[in-house]
Amino acid sequence: MSKITTELLLERAVPRSTRLRKIETLNLSKLQLKTGDLDPRLFSRLRHLQKLDLSDNLLDKFPNSLTLPDLRVLNCNNNKLEDVTALKQFPLLEELTYENNVYLTLNDDYKVMFLLQNLRLLNGKDITKLANHVRRVNSRKLTSKVTAHWEKFFRDKLPEKHTAEQVKSIKKKFLKSVQTNVVYGPSSLSEFTRWRVKMIAEEFLAYSLGLELNSDTEPEEKTDESEEESTESPREAAEDVAQVVTPSKRKRNHSKSSPGNKRSKTQANTEEEAAEDVSAEPLHFLQCHSKGNSREDFKTQLWSCVFEPVLDSGARKDPIVSSSRTVATCGGESVCLIDCETGTVLKKYKVATEEFFSVAWTTLTMVISDSRKKAHNILAAAGRRGIVKLIHVAADFCYGEIKAHKKPIATVCFSPTQETHLFTASYDKRIALWDIGIPDCDYNFKASQLLVLETASIPLRIALVPTCPEQYLLAGCEGGCFAWNIKLDKGQKSRPFEAIFQFPDEESMTTSHRVDGLAFLNDDVVVSKSSKPGCIYLWSWSRSFDAKGKGCQRTMSAVILAELEWSTTDMSYLTLSTCPAKEYVFCGDEKGSVWMYNLSNYTAAWGSAKGKRSERRISPTQILKWPELRVNGEQPPEILVNNVVADPAFTYLVVLTSVNITAIWKKS
């Protein structure tokens, strides 16, 4: 039953009233009201309501049809509002306050200034002059840019005699392109700009060209900017690429080639002739981690990227795909969130004195109030300073940090079973396990160290064993590959390694080698890359690790299942990754290429009890060659692929380089 009744409305009227239609001032604050409690049928009877106080409640949005035609003053302070666009239903609104709604940003202020033509006071400030600028000057500039974008790139693509299908296609492409490429105003308002550009573009199509608005375009995604960390426009980085990094002809290799021509999908919209039909096409080349936003920065190294998990709600839930098309990348002083499909930099976080080496996602169920819980994705980022930054992405808020180590952190990862458990591997030759806690509604949290794993050398990559992620952890280190027992019911907080693994060397087995790539292909098969040139090993965890053995620091021989043929370079720290759902391994090289291995024909045999080692090295299924890019008319310097990661469904492939370029490929 709704908390709001006719009797309550009459009682909370100021002064009290006997008729709903006579109420002009109404105080509904501090009632723990949720959005569902605002019944449009009941509120529609408040025909003369002018002042409404809804402060200190639990509202996350407004219903679209409250029908308060005479409303002039609205107080929504201290709620959980996530969107303001429904306020356009109150066209006479003159005073609006919504302070202490943590999900609302400066972009939302500009939206209400545009939507509410009579608004004078916003959060207690006179916004008359600014609102006029937003409604007139800003709109005029954006309209000019949208029109110019159509004239330059799309006008000639629509035939004089066009079919409905052609109209639908051109509308979709134009709306997508114009939101991506039209930039105006300060970077902190980029989400508002994108919202207005979409609106203006739809109006332009409807009224100037006679194309209806009800297109089947994709819904606009909210792309808030971080206000805690310094930010830049969602398109600034990509715009840099469109003007500075220009793809020319791309030559690619494929295991089964076939001739054909394809149109480039890069931001430069460059025509290309593909010599071979490949399974992946380049979408975007982004230069978004530049120091000081410099277009001349081709020195910043990019190190880590992880796809954002899908929250378990609504249309985004998909039992097959466990991540979105949003990827977090890090390098230099910044962490970026990128939409892989559009190439838009959705958010950017900067710490001027930091160099980020690693990022990791977890999903925390946070208590928003006594009666409401909500799942939110939290991003952990760490690097040279030994500090872990904890970022609540939806709220654009870096809510805390953990001073985890006194030396740089090489890599971080969350436990797949314990959402608050974070592992940090550091140059201090320690791997620490932290409980980061769950922040309350005021973002207070308490982090505690649960475990310290002592390593004989610097840990570079870590991986939890999929079949027992709460018991064993593997680490690739400067001096070999090690395993630890991480079970928390053991009394010992500081632990030495339990096992070190031997691998084939040129003539014998050795434990002394750098392991700079480490990942699980499935529950049992480990993929590791060592300093032995031209070789990536696949080996069995269950057959290599003797769980029944006693004592620490035991030497065990890795049971090799196969070797993957890879570059003969002696260059270190070019790491690998896996896509378990598709049984793929990826690894970049010193020439900007990505080596891809489809191992689906091998895994069944490896999983059998009598599975034998593949006699020959397995060649790559495909090598994606780095395209010939032009930087100010010249080719960039030597390109190393530091990392390459696919989303779980292998729709997108994100390539991080040594020259501050993020390349995004899409599987055809």
UniProtKB/TrEMBL annotation:
Residue ranges constituting the Leucine-rich repeat and WD repeat-containing protein 1 WD domain according to the UniProt record: 279-667
Give the residue ranges for region: Disordered. 215-279
Leucine-rich repeat and WD repeat-containing protein 1 LRR domain sequence ranges: 7-200
Q: Which residues form a coiled coil?
A: none
Give the domain of life. Eukaryota
According to its UniProt record, where is this protein mainly located? nucleus
Protein name per its UniProtKB record: Leucine-rich repeat and WD repeat-containing protein 1
Q: Which gene encodes it?
A: Lrwd1
